[in-house]
Amino acid sequence: MRISTLLTSSIPFGHNFFNRRALASSSLAFRFRTMADSSEDSLRKALSEKQSEVESQGNQVRALKEAGAAKTELDAAVKALNALKLEKTSIEKNLQAIISGPDGGSVNKEAFRQAVVNTLERRLFYIPSFKIYGGVAGLYDYGPPGCAVKSNVLGFWRQHFVLEENMLEVDCPCVTPEIVLKASGHVEKFTDLMVKDEKSGTCYRADHLLKDFCKEKLEKDLRITSEMAMELKEVLSNLDVLSAEELGECIKRYGITAPDTRNPLSNPYPFNLMFQTSIGPSGVSTGFMRPETAQGIFVNFRDLYYYNGNKLPFAAAQIGQAFRNEISPRQGLLRVREFTLAEIEHFVDPEDKSHPKFSDVAHLEFLMFPRDEQKPGHSARIISIGEAVASKIVDNETLGYFIGRVYLFLTHLGIDKNRLRFRQHLANEMAHYAQDCWDAEIETSYGWIECVGIADRSAYDLKAHSEKSKVDLEAQEKYSEPREVEKLVISPVKKVIGLAFKVDQKKVLEALEAMKEEEALKMKTDLESKGEVEFYVCTLGKNVSINSSMVTISKEKKKEHQRVFTPSVIEPSFGIGRIIYCLYEHSYYMRPSRDGNEQFNVFRFPPLVAPIKCTVFPLVQKPEYEEVSKVISKSLTASGISHKIDITGTSIGKRYARTDELGVPFAITVDSTLSLRDLRTWADVWSAFPHHSSGSVDE
Amino acid sequence: MRISTLLTSSIPFGHNFFNRRALASSSLAFRFRTMADSSEDSLRKALSEKQSEVESQGNQVRALKEAGAAKTELDAAVKALNALKLEKTSIEKNLQAIISGPDGGSVNKEAFRQAVVNTLERRLFYIPSFKIYGGVAGLYDYGPPGCAVKSNVLGFWRQHFVLEENMLEVDCPCVTPEIVLKASGHVEKFTDLMVKDEKSGTCYRADHLLKDFCKEKLEKDLRITSEMAMELKEVLSNLDVLSAEELGECIKRYGITAPDTRNPLSNPYPFNLMFQTSIGPSGVSTGFMRPETAQGIFVNFRDLYYYNGNKLPFAAAQIGQAFRNEISPRQGLLRVREFTLAEIEHFVDPEDKSHPKFSDVAHLEFLMFPRDEQKPGHSARIISIGEAVASKIVDNETLGYFIGRVYLFLTHLGIDKNRLRFRQHLANEMAHYAQDCWDAEIETSYGWIECVGIADRSAYDLKAHSEKSKVDLEAQEKYSEPREVEKLVISPVKKVIGLAFKVDQKKVLEALEAMKEEEALKMKTDLESKGEVEFYVCTLGKNVSINSSMVTISKEKKKEHQRVFTPSVIEPSFGIGRIIYCLYEHSYYMRPSRDGNEQFNVFRFPPLVAPIKCTVFPLVQKPEYEEVSKVISKSLTASGISHKIDITGTSIGKRYARTDELGVPFAITVDSTLSLRDLRTWADVWSAFPHHSSGSVDE
């Protein structure tokens, strides 16, 4: 296999499938870890040269020894060898530093992630599902604080999208009959490529094994040639588009074996990622757990359009569970077998994708990474969405409007705007029918993670369901005044045709009427010039002679009162669990205790997101303070404000440390006076103002 | 089969399974349609006697005719026959009236239901799922207003239960590995009995067919004997507890055939109602879509107990999808294959089921139907929950507290308190381990529907998972002071036993130490009286002789610092979709148009539940009114109030009619002044006050 062929290999299928694959690897992190590329390349070359020098100098020393050379001569040679080795070590260090990145690389990232994840698991933000039975890979529970965060994120999503934009929210079942997912293409194409350990039968994702191999080589093996490094990088950046055959070839070529046993691997073959089941007791009706919520909206288009007064544009939205039977889930909360999606399908006239509220977002500026700029040496840059649409970087206003709204949504939740970018899909990442597609990617310890996909999917989905169900999924535009249009009119003369073709007359008639415009116009010209033409009637399986007396073909002006068309759909699709995980990483930091001997974990959530808004505690244990605390608690409950009351005698410092781990933004302390603590500005407040200190405060 | 045996047939399994079955039929509606029973019975007898009289008089007339009797004699006989026939018709009418009930019976109910359902479907409260593909039985989508109602109901549930009671909310996956559902008993017992059309293979629920037969006979066939009527009623009230064999016998006995084809039916056999699937690519790991959310809480007990500071009582809650692969779903939204459950598991010390907030609900009075009163001639009566607990009708305070809270929850949503009752499970309805169980039942056109089950399940679930997973799921009560307890101490004298039993000594030792209290005490007495006893060591498979020098057995007082126990669980479980459907029926009414020529559909939702809180419209079409309407709309959006703006020129009456169908409780009309319409009191307001009328108002 020549690697260059990979770059042109065709994309098997559309957006949903492709997105899933793109998500699967964080290969993009590699593709764009660019800046360093040229120096990495020259260092690899230098290292390989230095290695040769070390070897040849080593040989020379050995030869001198064998020849019994003079001590001074030998010493000089050894000294030169050592100098070369030092130079080599220095090059290796530089190379390692570049490979690991400026921040110390994956080691630091993993330590950071471990600190976040430990706090999350200890405070039950999430729990591996069915833990007492050993758990199931890729399934997680949200514990109390995680569940509250999720509920807050979804509540804000409803306010920000559904309510603000007057969307039509629907709620469809997860169990989906086969025919729906055949129409959408999932039954045939929603697959990952799998390999099996030929002896133990353990399954692996083929691209994961190849990715691990390439990463390992590139990061740990300093001796690979510059050419080999280039090749491995090219493999990595094309992982998503490798065919089964190409993947298989790579696995053979690099001698990749099963990671656990070192046994040989089978050839890669497709595994459908949908959970399959059977609907009803007969066993003959196949169903699947939906892999996305969008299809439930598409199949309801006709009713929703009617509900909206037969007017476009309008958007429908759905929040719900989706299921993907991953081959071997990893990356914790980022790659799971069941997850919550929030999806919007905005239906719009393909001839008018303007948006009345675009001016509300046009001024927003954020990191965008257009298709053409995704090459070595470039990274995302700040562009205003108004400019991006005006300069056609983003295809249309409606798509641009949603990109802006998604930006506002994510940053309001607490996503750091400096670690959020909108990346445009490359041409070979998009489905053939897609008009344009942008992913909101958030940077985490795992690299850049796609959390929201915003795609202009043209009319593909509605057409697919319309074709399969034989139900029209169309919209009409009523003209305010009738419009004149030119239409081709084919008028066969029945009597003449009847006499000429007898029993075949019906088939000839139908064939004439069924002619496409181009064919009919050619016949018209031919009849005008020759008076007679040969005409193939497929239902008869032969040619017949048609002359000018048998048919008139003309272009006529007609008045039309409306236009009928299949709407385009613009789809923002949110992976809620991923957004929440990214939020955890972006909200987490450590603060030292007052004496500097301890480190406390803090989640600095915006109040909007915080699982518990407020803690209430008496500064010292006194019955009257407890009473006051309970009164406050009661009135907070009545106002629907989640809070925690802590009347333990523990020191205030420890109590703050406890609530900091849960990201509680406010605290009410009861003393002779009431005080309000606002975590969001705590660090600033602490350093800026004089503060009361008592014996029981340990920070 | 003698019907009386049915009454004593044992219950196969616990609450979840049993509940499901109880839900399956509205047989209770029959069991308690009592009052009429005695007159029904005497009418059936009278009818049967009258029928005999008619027949014998008929025979007499025929005999007179054949004998050529005199006209006067024949006329008198015919007159008597006609009089008898009239009397018979009159009895039939009375009987039919009693069977149909005072309100005209099932015909009226079905017409009412049809009116509700038509409005619901037309306004997209719900939509049969995958409609363009012909739909799937038992699967429904919530359209925009239905989705908003659901979201409001769940929001209020969170406020009323989770927040008010400081519950620990969790969110677990639907995909569940087999071992969890084996422990809970679902894999073995979560079944319904099914029969197959022996020729076409179509599947039916055996109890449904039997129920339909009995209902049809009782309601339509006036000629069945009083004894037969009694028998059929007894079958109906025992449908839930019939074994496969008993059901099969009934089907044979009554000659029931397949409803569509009249083909013979197979014997009933169990069909597991869980949707089965496979987790991961290997195909060897069986999973199911969870049939309830509760198991996800039980398996997390240990972590949640820790999260709660190792303190009891506490409650965990979960809202989520559950799945039941019904054999042949019917009853529309009441029996579906996928639905939203909201479940609470309140963990409590079995020795202390008091509730600190019980006094908050003790005064509440509502319809309760205790077990002992569920017999002919009785119906639910108003009892205060305080009295019910005090008189031990309800087992304990915590159970009583939740019954009270459920009452408040349902009535706040808009459920009519006169059509809501709390029915206690009969002894044969409950699982053997259940302490007590009450269902909140709501009366609808389908009869009384169980919408919430509130059960004291003792320690059953935690023990089942602890046994299967080998993980302790226990709580500790730390004593404030150590307590003295008497403990049995068995001290074998190793040296003596070693000398006596040589190679067998270890087995003898272990057997002695493993003795149960009773056995040990008997040995102690025997040793004291006889000095030597025979002792069976099962690991040796034989008796050995034990004498007083080999073991001392004594009762000693020990100090204990804590008590370790498995908590009891009190489980309120809410079928959200059912509650919502009942709410629709209770909120629906028809109001005539002003001219009385039309009937308008109205849902009178409380603002809390209403899918759209408010409509805004200009009374007449004027640009300045439109502007004002838009300003109002914007500020409603900003306050998070869902609303609809209607600037069409349609008449105000029609616009009100439209919003009434969606249950919009408020309207803001824009004129030279602003007016607020409050639908909740509209009818009263309309009749009580003089009202402005303009040409465009048509009501």
TrEMBL record, chains A, B:
Q: What Pfam family does this protein match (any one)?
A: HGTP_anticodon
Q: What is its EC number?
A: 6.1.1.14
Q: What coarse category fits the chief subcellular location reported for this protein?
A: cytoplasm
PROSITE patterns linked: AA_TRNA_LIGASE_II, WHEP_TRS_1, WHEP_TRS_2
Q: Where in the cell is it found?
A: Cytoplasm
UniProt keyword annotations, A-Z = Aminoacyl-tRNA synthetase, ATP-binding, Coiled coil, Cytoplasm, Ligase, Nucleotide-binding, Protein biosynthesis, Transferase
Alphabetical list of NCBIfam families matching this protein: glyS_dimeric, PRK04173.1
This protein is called what? glycine--tRNA ligase
Organism, scientific name: Rubus argutus
